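Quick one: structure for this chain?
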Amino acid sequence: MEGEIDVYTAPRLRELLIDLVNKGNFHLLVNMEKVDFLDSTGLGVLVGGLKRVRAHDGSLELVCTQERILKIFRITGLTKVFGIYASVKEAKEAHGRDK
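Got it. Here's what it folds into:
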């Protein structure tokens, strides 16, 4: 992902997540390193995606180090819900996937 995840762009993200789950992808990693804005609509789409994958015993985790985006997850308490990693490599290593 890059740019803004807001009321205008969130529907595309929602469709992408639904499509991935419908195709049997239940362990998703969203790279948010190039996201410079996230609003409540975008946050809702991520939570909705998490619910979809968890219905299949899956996971939706995030790569994010930008303080302004991380602050949103902290304020909302979602750091306890999403796995948040500093890099794609770190996320893969945490799950024993290929580096």
